[in-house]
Amino acid sequence: MGEKPNxxxxxxxxxxxxxxxxxxxxLFWACSVVHLVAGLAGLGLVDPVTKAxxxxxxxxxxxxxxxxGIIVAALLASTAGDIALxxxxxxxxxxxxxxxxxxxxxxxxVRKRPGxxxxxxxxxxxxxxTSGRRPVRWWMPVAAYAVVWAALVAxxxxxxxALQIPVxxxxxxxxxxxxxxxxxxxxAGVGGGLFFLSDxxxxxxxxxxxxxxxxxxxxxxxxxxxxxxxxxxxxxGRWEPVNxx
Length: 245
What we know:
The protein has 245 residues and is mainly alpha-helical.
């Protein structure tokens, strides 16, 4: 019998992690929908249980897509924050967990694409790492978010009570995530902006500034923001749709 011919592989062979990436993403979105519906309908334990499952599912998806460990760490720290915020008296520790998540995101985005390391000739960061698009100077999102942060702190400050200092400090790292994610690309930038909006609406509740369906909007923007941040890293900052497999 003749020998089998040598087979040259032209690309990576999908392993078990890659095969489960699609189902994990489906589970994440299914859990997201159930959670949002449960929140609207007041379905008891379904709400906190599905909330606790959201970020672990997204973290497993990032792992299956061979994403960086620091993003997985950000999602797991967010999981701890989600759980803590469901427990009475754990609001400040919950903020602490989310601050760790933001520091993970900030570290990744600064290392990968800091605006202050761009060439003096361009003094800019391209959108999505592609040519043919008008660049955004690195300091523009810094200036824009600084104005928004200062205005929000001034507006909410009187109603924050004993949480004035913790909320103001946390909002700084939240804002830094929004800024640095915008340097990485448009998908990450939108994700960071949605995360910023979600947590800002939580602060509105602390200041007794409520409105109908605020909780729904908080979770919808949080889920979308976290997904866009994670998927931007998986896609290398590009805006194109993510292949779940």
